[in-house]
Amino acid sequence: TVILTAKVVVQSDNYEDFNMTFKVKAKDKPELAIAESDITMVGWTYGQTPTTPSVSSLPEGATLTAAYKNADGKDITPGSMTDAGKYTVTVRYETDEAVYTGTKKFTIEKRIIGITDVTFVNKTYDGTDDAASCVTAVTFDNLPEGVTFTKDTDYYIDHSSHYNSAEVKNANATIVNVNLKEESFKNYAFRWNGSDNQSHVEFKKNDVGIYKVTLPTATAGELTIVNGLDRTWSFDLSTLLPKLDGPMEYGDVRYTID
Q1: Distances in whole angstroms, Cα of residue 201 to Cα of each of 55, 114, 198
Q2: Residue 125 half-sphere exposure, CB side, CA atoms within 13 Å?
Q3: What is the pLDDT of residues 78-88, one digit of tens each?
Q4: Model pTM?
Q5: What are the tens digits of pLDDT across the range 176-230?
Q6: 123 burial class (0-12, 13-18, 19+ CB within 10 angstroms)?
Q7: What is the DSSP letter of 130?
Q8: Residue 183 DSSP code
Q9: What order do you get walking across the sheet with 135-141 strand by strand?
Q10: Three-state DSSP class for 187?
């Protein structure tokens, strides 16, 4: 507040001159509230073009300014206001008579994405139904233009991903469990199990299988028979098969003698 003091000399025809003083006091303009109903601030979905606030009662010639805070009350600049979350905008304008301010809450929603395909490398039989190690990439739907996701950076494949069978003859489909990394989940989510805020989704892909694996050469066997002896001779060919590791099995084995 500024106070100016002025001294005035008063002269008249019938009185001696005398002094008179007066003070001029300048004070700040009053600050008045803008009704929240007069403020328009529309939220948007992550990746869309941000909106700007407006005031229905803005006088002609007045300039509207805006300041932003995040959900923690921290001041942020419009350029850094990109992550999904809840925000508050404070608008302000000034007239000759007063300063007007008001606040409005708005939300940047997470972007709902989906999966359209999963890319696999061929899996050879190892006795397990594991599919996680075979996934090389996931194709996502509804990412913003120019945005791509990278495996193990933006998302990862859960170890529960599996084929519908560990057997070559029965494996023809997979269930792939895709999870968003924590940083990605801030702004993206899957629609899954009735919720629009899931970090995990299952994707089923058909027409994928497990391929036969090439084994080492079987051990040579020998059957000795006695000439002139009428008898049925037998030999267990399975004893010549190479030994398998871990959960691997031969399954149904058929022998053909050339």
Answers
A1: 42, 8, 7
A2: 20
A3: 777 789 999 99
A4: 0.76
A5: 999 999 999 999 999 998 898 999 999 999 999 999 888 777 778 787 878 878 8
A6: buried
A7: B
A8: H
A9: 135-141, 111-120, 188-192, 195-198
A10: coil
